Amino acid sequence: MEGPTEEPCYPLILERVMRSPLLGTKILGVVQTGDFEGKHTDTILEIYRRLSEGRGLLPPAIGFIFDREDRDKGTRKDLERRSDGKVVFTKRRMYENYLLNPHAIAAVASEIERFSEGGDVEPEDINRWLEQHRWDRRYLGKEVEENSQTEETWLSDVHGAKVLNDMFQELSEARVLYDKVVHGTALTRWLCDNAPDDLRGLAGLIEDRLERRVSQ
């Protein structure tokens, strides 16, 4: 899958949300997901196929789960086709989009030393910040018409990583910078234990990749 944040988080989601064992399957981040795009896509996929099928140099790849990012539907469909169905994309723009639960963010921020000089961070503090910045062009890359400003659209299209980066910096008065791996994992743990439905759609995508073990 995409990178260092998902590497520790996807197993947590499988084990705690779906109660699905890995059964020896390893979830690893791809170093450069861009290698799977553009004119070299076929070459990269063919190299991986040959290595994974040749005398155990690499384990066979069950599949690749990449962030949707700004890839249009045609680009995604083309890469899925070229990979013989091994490549799939998250429904939301990136992994961080699944972590934007105000209660989760408040709980994790409250555990960070010196995040707030005034005591615990409350979900209302997070909601207040979100209401002020939710539809900023910086996070959507475009102006979104008011009649299209729904929660579903926002969760799907917002740049979740930028939202968390800016929120942490502003609410902590620059004392704490958002760490994608450390804080992303903490948010994932909280969601698994307290709001698993927030992750269930992503969990189903991961589990679907694992089910390919049976047919391979």
Structural overview:
The protein is an all-alpha fold and 216 residues long. The protein has eleven helices and two strands; from the N terminus they run H-H-E-H-E-H-H-H-H-H-H-H-H. It is globular and about 55 Å long. The chain has helices at 6-16, 41-53, 73-82, 102-110, 123-133, 137-140, 151-157, 160-171, 182-194, 200-210, 212-215, and strands spanning 64-66, 87-89. The protein has two domains: 6-92 and 199-215, no CATH class; 95-195, no CATH class. Strands 1-2 form a two-stranded parallel ribbon. Strand 1 (64-66), helix 3 and strand 2 (87-89) form a beta-alpha-beta unit.
Q: How many domains would you count in the coordinates? A: 2
* Main sheet record: 2 strands, parallel
SSE run? HHEHEHHHHHHHH
Low-confidence regions? none
Give the terminus-to-terminus CA distance: 19 Å
Report the principal-axis shape. globular
Class inferred from helices and paired strands: mainly alpha
Counted by DSSP, the helix tally is 11
